Amino acid sequence: MDLVNNYYGSSDEEEKDTSNIQNTNTKSKSLVTINATPDTGFDDHSDRIYTSETATELTVNVPYDDLMRPMLGPENPSGNSKNRISTQNVLTGHVEQQAISESDFRQQLRTFETYGYARDPSVGNANLSGQTGQGIMGTGYVGNLAAAAHMSGASIYDAVPKNLRPNKDLKKRRNKKGDLSVVEGENAYKGPWAGYEGEEELKQKRVTAPPEGEGEEGEDKKQKQDEDVEDEEEMGQSLAAPGAEAGKKKRNRGMEFGTEQTTFHGQSEYDYLGRTYMAVPQDLDVNLLSESGSQECFIPKKCIHTWDGHARGVSAIRFLPQSAHLLLSAGMDNKVKIWDVYHDRSLLRTYLGHTKAIRDIAFNNDGSRFLSASYDRNVKLWDTETGQCIRSFTTGKVPYCVTFNPDEDKQNVFLTGCSDKKIVQFDINSGEITQEYDQHLGAVNTITFVDDNRRFITTSDDKTMRAWEFDIPVVIKYIAEPDMHSMPAVTLHPNNKWMACQSLDNQIVVYGARDRFRMNRKKRFQGHLVAGYACKPGFSPDGRFISSGDSDGNVWTWDWKTCRILKKFKAHDKVVMNTIWHPHETSKMATCSWDGLIKYWD
C-alpha cells in the first residue's frame, strides 16, 4: 500500500489523510488500531516490485534496479539462456573435443590403472613448467599426486627401479636347485622340481586347518553344494525297490515314497451296490463298451461343460481306456485329478505326490493304473481307484514322456524318455531298469508303439526320428532331413497306419507307421501357430478329422483326406495343449490349456 501511495498518491490526499488520523487520535485515544494487511516473512521487501521474466508489458513504473535484479536463486554461470543454448552440444552442457592418439591414450590409461596417476591430456592450458595440461594444482598430472612425485612421473612403459615397482613383493621366489652331487640332506639336488618360498608353510597351515565338513561354515557350505550340484549318477532302482543297498546315498528329489496323499471329493466312494467310480455307467444313451470308431463323427460346435479345478495350467488329459467315462488331467500345480465325464461331471479324486509340475500321464490297458511323470525327476505309479501310490521310479533326470507297453503280457513294462537323451525301460514288479536306448542327441519328447507293438518310434530335440525294436537297443530306422524340425507331440491314427507329428514349423506332418516309416508328403496340415509348444494332435474315432490347438487358444480342425481347414474356433485364453475326441461319441471333444481350464465340446 505504501508503494502505491508513493507513485499514485497526491500531496492533497496525504494532507487530508494525516489530518483525519490526527483528529481521530485526539477524539478517542482508547480505540485499538487494526492492520488488515500485516507484513509476512522476516525480510522487508516492501520497497521492491517483482516482475515476470517473460512479461512484455508493465502496468506500473518499475525502478531500474528492480528490473535488473537476477531471478530467484543463484545466477547462471554460463550467462543467459540464449548463449548457453548456442554453446551447448550435449544434454548437460558443453563438452570440448580434444585430439589424442590411441597409443598415448592407452599408455595413460594403463599408467593410471597401475600407478594411480596419469598425465593431464587437456590442451589450451599449461602447467607451471610450461607443459600442455595443467592438471591438479598446476602439476600436469591427475590422480594420486604423491605417487606421481614418488615415481617421478614415469609411465607404464618407462623403466622403473625395482624398489619403486608396486608389484615387487608379488613375484614368487624360487628355491635353490641344490647341489647335483648331494642326494639327500639340506642342500640336496632338486633341479626343476624345486618349489617356491613359503610353500611349505602354506601346506602346514592347510594340514592344521579343520576339514571342510567340520564347523558351522563348512557344514553350511557342504549343505549348499549338495543342494546346488546336480547328481550325474544314474539311479536305476526305484526309491521303494526291494533289495536296494542300504548304504547307498540317494538324493531326495521331490516327495519321498510313502508320503503321497490322495483326496476323494465325492459324497461316497461306493454306491448301494458297492461299486466305485471305476464301474462303467449303464444308464446312458451311449454304449461305452462298443468298439471305438463304429459311429460317424462330426465337428463339435459349442462348449457344454468346463472343469476348473487346477490352480495352474493343464499340461495333459487322457480318457479312461475302453469306456472313457472318466477323464484324467495332469496340471502344473503338481496335482493329478480325475473327473466324471457323465452325470454331474464333478471332480472325483486328487492325487498328491509330486513337488513340481507334471509333464505327462499314461494309463495301462484297462485303466486300473496310471503313470505320472514330473519335473521333480520322478515317475510314479498310481492306483486309479484307491489313489494309492504303488511305486516310484527315477533315473535322476527329468522324464519328458512315459508310456506303457500296449501288449497284454507286457503290462508290467513301461518306457520313459528323459532329458539325458535316453529312453529307459522299467519293470514295475522289480522296480529296476531292464533296458536303455541311447542313440538320440537331444531330450526325448515322444514314444509311440507301432507295428503291432513290436516296434516304437521316438522323436527328440535333435530334430530326428528313430525307430527301435522293442527290448533291442539298436536303431533300425533313422529319419533326419535338412528341413526337419523338432516334433514334440505325436498321435497315432485310429487305423494304426499313420502318425501325425506336430512339427515346430507350424504344420502337422504325417509319417507311415508300418515298415518304412516314410513321410507322406501329400498330407500336410497348416494354418495354425504352434512354434515353441508341444500341442498334441487328436483324431476323431472314425479317422475323418484331425484337430490341434495353437498358441493363441484356438482349436483347428482339418479333413484327413483333403487336408482342408474345416473349422477354427476360440477355445481358451492361452495355448491349447491337448485335443482328444471321445471314442464312443459322435462329436464330443475335450481340450486343456495353460489357462487352467478343461473344456468339453459338442
UniProtKB/TrEMBL annotation:
<feature type="region of interest" description="Disordered">
    <location>
        <begin position="190"/>
        <end position="251"/>
    </location>
</feature>
<keyword id="KW-0747">Spliceosome</keyword>
<protein>
    <recommendedName>
        <fullName>Pre-mRNA-processing factor 17</fullName>
    </recommendedName>
</protein>
<dbReference type="InterPro" id="IPR015943">
    <property type="entry name" value="WD40/YVTN_repeat-like_dom_sf"/>
</dbReference>
<keyword id="KW-0853">WD repeat</keyword>
<dbReference type="GO" id="GO:0071013">
    <property type="term" value="C:catalytic step 2 spliceosome"/>
</dbReference>
<keyword id="KW-0508">mRNA splicing</keyword>
<feature type="repeat" description="WD">
    <location>
        <begin position="437"/>
        <end position="471"/>
    </location>
</feature>
<feature type="repeat" description="WD">
    <location>
        <begin position="539"/>
        <end position="568"/>
    </location>
</feature>
<feature type="repeat" description="WD">
    <location>
        <begin position="351"/>
        <end position="392"/>
    </location>
</feature>
<dbReference type="InterPro" id="IPR020472">
    <property type="entry name" value="WD40_PAC1"/>
</dbReference>
<keyword id="KW-0507">mRNA processing</keyword>
<dbReference type="InterPro" id="IPR032847">
    <property type="entry name" value="PRPF17"/>
</dbReference>
<dbReference type="InterPro" id="IPR019775">
    <property type="entry name" value="WD40_repeat_CS"/>
</dbReference>
<keyword id="KW-0677">Repeat</keyword>
<feature type="region of interest" description="Disordered">
    <location>
        <begin position="1"/>
        <end position="26"/>
    </location>
</feature>
<keyword id="KW-0539">Nucleus</keyword>
<feature type="repeat" description="WD">
    <location>
        <begin position="307"/>
        <end position="349"/>
    </location>
</feature>
<dbReference type="GO" id="GO:0003729">
    <property type="term" value="F:mRNA binding"/>
</dbReference>
<feature type="repeat" description="WD">
    <location>
        <begin position="569"/>
        <end position="602"/>
    </location>
</feature>
<dbReference type="GO" id="GO:0000398">
    <property type="term" value="P:mRNA splicing, via spliceosome"/>
</dbReference>
<dbReference type="Pfam" id="PF00400">
    <property type="entry name" value="WD40"/>
</dbReference>
<dbReference type="InterPro" id="IPR036322">
    <property type="entry name" value="WD40_repeat_dom_sf"/>
</dbReference>
<dbReference type="InterPro" id="IPR001680">
    <property type="entry name" value="WD40_rpt"/>
</dbReference>
